[in-house]
Amino acid sequence: MASVTVKFNGIWRLYVGAGMATLQAGVIDEALKQIEKEFAPKFEKKLQERGVKLDGGILKHSYITLNRKNIKELAERTLKDGDILDLFVAIPGG
Amino acid sequence: MVAENNSRNRYSRQTMFHGIGEEGQQKLTRSSAVIIGCGALGCNIANLLVRAGVGKVRIVDRDFVEYHNLQRQTLFNENDVKSQLPKAIAAQKHLHEINSLVEIEGIVADVNFSNIERFCSGMDVILDGLDNLETRYLVNDVSLKLRIPYIYGGAISSFGMTMTVIPGVSPCFRCVFPNLPPPRTMPTCETDGILGPATSAVSSFEATEGIKILVGSGLINKDLVTMDVWDISFERFPIVRKEGCPSCGGRYDFLEDKVKLIKSSLCGQSRAVQIVDTDSKGIALDLLAGHLSGVKNLTYNEYMLRFDVDDFGITVFPDGRAIIKNTLDESAAEKLYLKYIGKENR
Fold first, then answer.
1. Which terminus, N or C, of chain A has the lesser number of Cβ atoms within 10 Å?
2. Alpha-carbon radius of gyration of chain A
3. Using CB atoms, which residue from B129, B133, B182 is nearest to A90?
């Protein structure tokens, strides 16, 4: 198990009510599952306040990097202490 | 003695900059840019490109100027609101006063699959001044299809984000964000607010990228750039092309999404639905005004016609488009459209 920092960037910060979180996980997919489990309900609740129903979806709409590299490009999925996962969603306004 | 209004004098401080020079300035003068959307991002991009001397600047926007725009949409003023001017027309007017050497074309239209290729064809770069994600996927498709560079920019709250799409070379918008979020799941400037400096920061990066592309600079942004002007943070994240990306593979889903009536809830409008009739041959607003009965507060000019009916405010444009305010119910809005603007009333 590694101690990993999760950074919620931009809109995610508004939606999950936190800019940063720490979790314990051995591999990337395990960390992602924890993120969806812990933070998707906050996203859903925020949407419900606006009259919109949605089940989950943090990961589906996120561009995710591990130590600034797209996780889809990474062959090595094992995490180590101090790793940083960044989550982004496209910013729609302007 | 007043100095002359010629290119050499006007752009002298810019040509001294090592990245542009005399040669770069000539390239700018011969080049063209289309700005899709003229809200806060579009205003600043247009302002910067016109002042920089880009030869032709086209601005496409569907909306009109309102008081709540003035906090951040830097091209507009109170007279534009009082005159009920569409943003594209107001922008064209003010930009011409800023630099009469530039050809400026303001187009009042909703950008959709039926017209976007016409707006972008022949232009050298596409800049993002939009306020919604749906149209950005459409712009991404047209950028790839026509092989015109596209600079994405978005802003909300104090956050900003930008990336540059060079067709066939860099990742596209859909490579990075493959899934369009469901309607109303993303925040808008209505729901979460927007800080003027956030839009200024993002649009300044967009305009700089546009200028770099037009002068042929090799220093094009390859990253996803994010910023928070409140926290004063700025970060870059490398992005890569997504294997199997439909748009990069030549499947332009958003460009091919052909529906007759396009309805959408608007970001910049409080509780409003827009209806676009893509088959419309246009509406003579003066004739429509003569046919309308049982409505209140009817006014019109050459750009738009407005009236109230029950609790709804309806604005109609010459291209057949309408914005129905004070509702998010799309079927109710469509009924109002058919009742008051339907073909028998034109």
1. N
2. 13
3. B133
Regarding whether B122 and B58 lie in a shared domain, the answer is: yes
C-alpha dihedral sign at B217, B218, B219, B223: positive
- Give the count of beta carbons closer than 10 Å to the beta carbon of residue A72: 11
| Range of the structural domain that residue B326 is part of | 261-345
- Asked whether residue B2 is domain-assigned, the answer is no
Q: Which residues of A22-46 are buried (b: 16+ CB within 10 A; e: fewer)?
A: ebebeebebbbebbbeebbeebbeb
Contact B267 A93 (CB under 8 A): yes
Per-residue pLDDT tens over the stretch B25-54: 999 999 999 999 999 999 999 999 999 999
Its pTM stands at 0.90
Is the CB of residue B38 less than 8 Å away from at least one CB of chain A?
A: no
Tokens of B128: 């993002």
Number of domains observed in the structure of chain A: 1
Determine the distance in angstroms separating the CA of B183 from the nearest CA of chain A, rounded to an integer. Answer: 9
C-alpha to C-alpha distance for B110 and B275, rounded to whole angstroms? 10
DSSP per-residue string spanning B174-243: HHH--SPPPTT-S--HHHH-B-HHHHHHHHHHHHHHHHHHHHT-S----EEEEEETTTTEEEEEE--PPT
Looking at this predicted complex, what is its ipTM? 0.92
